[in-house]
Amino acid sequence: MDSKSKKLGLVGAIFLIVSSLAGSGIIALPQQLAATGSITLISFILVTIGALFLTLVYVRAGRRFTDPSPTALASYVNPLLGAKSGFFYVYGNLISNVSILIAGLGYLAFFMPALNHPIVLGITVIILIWLFVLLSLRGVGIITKVVSATVTLLLISVIITSTVGWFDFQPALFQQNWNVSGLGTGSAIMSGFAILIFSFVGVESVATNSELIENPQKNVPIATIAGFIIVAIIYILSTTVIEGMFTAKAIEAAPASFALCMEHIFNSKIVGDFVSALMAVACIASFLVWNLSSASAAKTSADKGFLPKAYSYTNKYGINSKGLVINGIIMTIVELMLMMLGSNVEAAFNITVTLSVLLLLFPYFWSGIALIKKDKEEGKKSISNNIIVLCSSIFIITAFVSATLDELWLVITMVMVVIAVYSIVLTKPKTV
Known about the structure:
Layout: H1 3-6, H2 10-21, H3 24-27, H4 29-34, H5 40-64, H6 70-77, H7 79-108, H8 118-136, H9 143-164, H10 171-176, H11 185-191, H12 193-198, H13 216-243, H14 248-252, H15 257-266, H16 269-303, H17 321-340, H18 345-377, H19 383-402, H20 405-426
Helix pairs in contact: 2-13, 5-11, 5-13, 5-18, 5-19, 6-7, 6-18, 7-8, 7-16, 7-17, 7-18, 8-16, 8-17, 9-13, 9-15, 9-16, 15-16, 16-17, 18-19, 18-20
């Protein structure tokens, strides 16, 4: 079989971005949004428009750069920005990985309520982190097939909710749930931004994996936009219909929101239990793949001198083993901090998602600037590029504004401490 036959066609490329976006990002959304209310439908529409412009940045960058990854694009703007963005991107994804496990365990709490206790949740997350680190040291093998199968079934459950669920939709209940946060309209709309942006993290996945796509110049732009639109429609329909099926309090009290919906739609607890178990397996198994992806991204940054050399090491199986161990330690520290804060499933997911998004927004912002710089260096005037980057930048800045002061201080502290440590670790003695 030649290399061409192994590459993904248009349909495969679309599924790549759909599965990248519509995994753990969707399953915890209803519970997180319920605290604000169905007014988050407006938030969702605004975030979707902004994320579409961010997606277009990577579509355009994929045509102009050999490596359109966020870190590489930031490096193109300035090597120092590349170094910092490498850190932001890698560690933003690491914190995101912790949230993936938390989301999966939230669905297991459907069977084991003890997982809602911060200590039990924390210990379970740490055990899973190191179990998957050990499993990853020899490669993922059949696990990738398990992930593909479970994510496909997960998507089927979400699609059923977003279609069949409308037969049980009650407009009066949706109106009753409109704004239960006690915040003003503007504040309520802004409050859901970080969680919603997390749903679209990974929009760059097809552009940054163009070597896996057949006829990338044609298929990558189509697949990226088509995949994004499919996911956005599924997201908006499914979360909206749930807000019209149950009270906001009922949704907020149910970590396994889609399992609750499927149980209601089919009037069967067995179906609800099956969906809950399925989504838990899909999330927890996908952690293994995302963890390897994070180690690979760290290796790329380390090869450029942006992260410690240990990340560049690969074992005899071709796995970034030292990087996996370092990442495991960092994720363990993150989870220990959550345990100290006494965070249950809902609070822990909210904290990790917000921190992850705020870190990832840095390299996303510089990716747009790289596109404008490329135009200026080549003497091109592209009004469409300027509009896309402007709208994308406004979207990213708005996301920062939506964060609370405590969240911003936490991110600033984390950035200062880690960059200080790395600047010391990466500094080499001068040779006389």
